[in-house]
Amino acid sequence: MLSDEAKDKLRQTLEKIQEWPSVYMYKFIFEPDRERLDKLLVLFPPESEILRKYSANGKYLALTVKEVMMSADDVVDRYDRASEIPGVITL
């Protein structure tokens, strides 16, 4: 889970640089694993734009998700839930 300090910092940054609602792009990197991928995908609605890209040697999977978000709080909440998935790096 993200610390309260990290959540506050992210929220403040997002509120300064974005107007809401807005399309937001999430990025995650992890070792390909079906269970991990499924846990990430369930965090996003089916209409989200999702791009999967494997590293050159296939050791890592980068997942980029674009979704219309209503507020900075919604973005922070999504990152917080994603941070609970072991082995997932959020960018």
Describe the protein in words.
- The chain has three helices and four strands; from the N terminus they run H-E-H-E-E-H-E.
- It is globular, with a radius of gyration of 13 Å.
- The protein has one domain (4-71, 78-90): Alpha-Beta Plaits (2-Layer Sandwich).
- Strand 2 and strand 3 form a beta hairpin.
- It has a four-stranded antiparallel β-sheet with strand order 2-3-1-4.
- It has 91 residues and is of the alpha+beta class.
Classified by CATH, the class is: Alpha Beta
| Strand percent estimate | 25-35%
Q: What's the total number of strands?
A: 4
**Uncertain regions: pLDDT < 50 for 5+ in a row?**
none
Q: What class would the helix/strand composition place it in?
A: alpha+beta
| Residues in helix, % | 25-40%
Brief write-up:
The protein has 91 residues and is an alpha+beta fold. It is built from three helices and four strands, in the order αβαββαβ.
Tags for this model:
91 residues; alpha+beta; Alpha-Beta Plaits; four-stranded antiparallel β-sheet; globular
Mind sketching the topology for me?
Elements: H1 4-17, E1 22-30, H2 34-41, E2 49-54, E3 61-69, H3 72-82, E4 89-90
Antiparallel strand pairs: 1-3, 1-4, 2-3
Helix pairs in contact: 1-3
